[in-house]
Fold this protein.
Amino acid sequence: MKKDPRPVGEPSSIFRFSQPGGAGKFENPTLIVAWDEDAGRLGPKVVQHINRKLGAKSFCEVEPTSFFSLEGVAVENDIAQFPEGKFYYCEGTPLRGNQRNDLVVFKSNEPRFERHKFLDGVCDLARHYCKIRQLYTLGGTISSIAHTDSRRILAVFNQEQIQQELSGFGLENMNWQGPPAISSFLLWAAQRKGIPGVSLWTEIPFYLAASEDFQAIKATLSFLDKRFDLALDLTELDEQIMRQNAKIDRLRQDDTQIDRYIGMLESKLALSADEQGELSKKVAEAL
Amino acid sequence: MSIIFYEEPELKDPVMFCGWPGIGNIGLTAIDTLRVVLKAEEFGEIEPWDFFDPQQVRIANGLLKELEFPSNKFYFQRLEARPEHIRRERDSIFFIGQQQPGEGPTRYAQGQKAYEMANLVLDVAEKFGCQRVYTSGAAVTQIHHTARPRVWAVPNKQNLIAEIKEYDNTILMSQIEGRSDQGVITGLNGLLLGVAKKRGLEAICLMGEIPYYLQAAPWPYPKGSKSVLEVLLKILDITVIPSASSGQALSKLDQSARKVEENIEGFLESLFAAEAVPPEVRDEIEKLRHISREPGPITEEEQKKIMEHIDELFDQRPWKDEKGPPTGGGTQ
């Protein structure tokens, strides 16, 4: 891969450019960020869908040496993994007046070291090189809802203006005080640089957290589709939701205890820790 | 990576005192209590985000309100601003850090970040004319929690040895049986001593003793802090009148030391009663209650055995963030 020789300021030292995208090529771009380790595989699956449907091309990646442990490689599902943080460019559909709403997608593992430097660099590249207008982070938030319930999307904004701008999109305001996820750290870093941003937290039933929650993935994609006029075809996800629901229905029929647990969640009743553990285990096995 | 000054006070020949969290928070508590006794004022801080991850976020009605990082603050106290009833000879600067910067899963400072932090702290020391720096921490040793902890002192220059020998209840490494004159000071307390030496600054680390079976305990050990504070007050020639407002901080430390000692007694008794530790471990800890402070009756092997049992009891659970609890449960 050849390095882009154009200066992009300080962040260039932590990035390697593979495609000279050129700031002039992005039109009204928005940055969408997804982290690889996510409940219900929400973030990675949403950006995978967008990238595939919109023909995204990778143009830049983070040099891993400062941010990840390189003592060896992890093996997951028999495959050797390697941490990465990649930027993709998706050209939006031309709208009225031929104006486009392009997307810049950043899909990454969470950095282990130098997290502020990493997030600051992402913001600098997005703002100075891509000229992004807004930032969206994606993530799943584990909830005690049943898989048959609809998925709410909770939102955290870093400016009131963007909160007002998205007020008609069915997002629900989050309230939380406690340890922050990396998306909140990024949202804060963006706030300091004057980049309007929102973190979207889509509800994931706890017993689907370790699997893929297609309904949550679809809910998030539907929001992005509506927000950016992406004209996404989501029929593939409808089929995946049906297949997943059918498998859980079979489990409910075969196991009355599991049926009772899910029925309790549907009735907004809480399960004990042991019951939650049993439900999560059996659903994971069934899927 | 920078230092923010709210004001730049003119100080006369100041001494710097640095405190960070560590075993039993002995050093941090000692230095911070001294800061309160002297009524030192905050005047600057080190920007935390390049050293630490945020610990707390506050989100209200969908808006990101605040991201909170561990603080690293500087305080000062001038001669002319001294509190009533306190006699002192020199101005003071305090550095209080809420966390040690590290790389990887360690609670102690190490690596490039720690070196950068040590240099930033000493930049402030030199900017305001400090020639002497004190750090403080814990000395893990074979004493019983009912015994009065001594203070181990390690200077970074030979000429400080004679001065340390004058300190009450204080010993040098060479005076500790079985240690010869060697040891290691982990974390920023040690690193700062080294970096100060490199810069030609005098530095002394004062370490309050803590029983080895409490080194992994999640609670503070104010008894060790009290011993360090007594030495610091002597060094600064400070006499605190208990009835004065500055004396309240010392009374609070005294009360806390007594309370923690009672709690440790109760905790160990409940462990022994529940047979959570083997009887021989109980006997080994109890031996320390009745012996002199010098090591001897308990071997390293026995110490290791006690620690294996005690450490298990101090295990702590992981946290959760906006992503929710590890096994599900609720919606934020």
Residues 1-10 of chain A have pLDDT under 50 and may be disordered. Chain A touches chain B through 50 residues (CB under 8 Å).
